[in-house]
Design a protein that fits this description.
With 164 residues, the protein is α+β, with helices and mostly antiparallel strands. Helices cover 26% and strands 40% of the residues. The chain has an eight-stranded antiparallel sheet. The longest helix has 18 residues, at 146-163. It is globular and about 40 Å long.
């Protein structure tokens, strides 16, 4: 990552929220596609050595992205339910761990995502707010390595954008 680009990762326990602000060296159309098209998401979303494998995606209000994080010796299934979409500007959704058919695993917390994109011409700022119902849910996700995994995935996106 270019060290001049913005990267901020904050855990706000008082508001049960994780806030990530990340700048990418690419125009908004390219960054938007990377976040909303499963063919591109599969190339960067999972931290190495894992890979994301999409089973289905309908990027529309009321649509769902069903995918697996596949590692050398296991896979974790996840689903994102899209709530709002403002093309090239923002989307919101509700994420959950699930089985391969999309049935939600209630042993894990659901996360509400609010992702916005700011067009800076040759760069794009992505502002992500991940909210939880309970502080314990936020703490559980942090313990599971969310910061390290998500940071690694964003690094994968940097590499992908630079190569395309």
């Amino acid at each position: 990552m270019n060290s001049n680009l913005i990267f901020d990762f904050t855990v706000d326990k008082a508001n049960k929220q994780i806030h990530v602000k990340r700048e990418f060296a690419a125009p908004v159309q390219k960054v938007w596609s990377a976040w909303t098209d499963s063919k591109i998401l599969d190339q960067w979303w999972a931290p190495k050595p894992f890979k994301a494998v999409t089973k289905s995606q309908e990027f529309k209000v009321g649509g769902t992205w069903l995918y697996a994080m596949v590692g050398p010796d296991f896979e974790h299934w996840c689903r994102a339910d899209y709530k709002t979409i403002d093309v090239l500007k923002s989307y919101t959704g509700l994420d959950a761990f699930c089985d391969e058919n999309g049935n939600i695993n209630m042993d894990f917390p659901r996360m509400s995502w609010d992702v916005s994109f700011t067009d800076k011409g040759t760069t794009t700022i992505v502002d992500i707010k991940v909210s939880y119902d309970k502080l314990e849910d936020l703490e559980k996700i942090i313990e599971m390595g969310f910061k390290e995994g998500f940071t690694a995935g964003l690094g994968n996106l940097d590499e992908l954008l630079a190569a395309s």
